[in-house]
Design a protein that fits this description.
Length: 121
């Protein structure tokens, strides 16, 4: 579950860098294997490190309600004519929600760590 937002972010970033994210006529699809390799690498990293997977899953859980509310608000406040600023706003809201969820998950993980041992004297 925590992999999905990261996989979408990888695809979006590579699409924006190569110009294929905007359905450009010059897009030749050469970046598709790169996206797949990066997504599989992230999935492998999360499978190899359960702690990171747990943190990513908590961040994804924080993302869901924020995305739903933002989608309803942004779709109810205008027409599709001004869709580009809405897409940017939705992406920014989702990024902030994911980062806040990640920060909360890291904070909770750090608080649950046992205290360092004290010297016995």
């Amino acid at each position: 579950m925590g992999w999905l937002p990261i996989a979408y972010a990888v695809a979006w970033i590579v699409g924006e860098v190569t110009g294929c994210g905007r359905f450009a006529a010059t897009c030749d699809g050469a970046a598709d294997p790169l996206v797949l390799v990066l997504q599989v690498a992230v999935l492998g990293l999360l499978l190899a490190a359960p702690t990171l997977a747990s943190l990513a899953a908590m961040a994804a859980l924080a993302l869901v309600p924020a995305a739903i509310v933002a989608t309803f608000v942004l779709s109810a406040t205008g027409e599709m004519v001004d869709g580009d600023p809405r897409r940017v706003a939705l992406g920014a809201i989702m990024l902030v929600a994911w980062l806040v969820g990640l920060a909360v998950a890291v904070t909770r993980r750090l608080r649950s760590l046992p205290p360092p041992p004290r010297p016995v004297s």
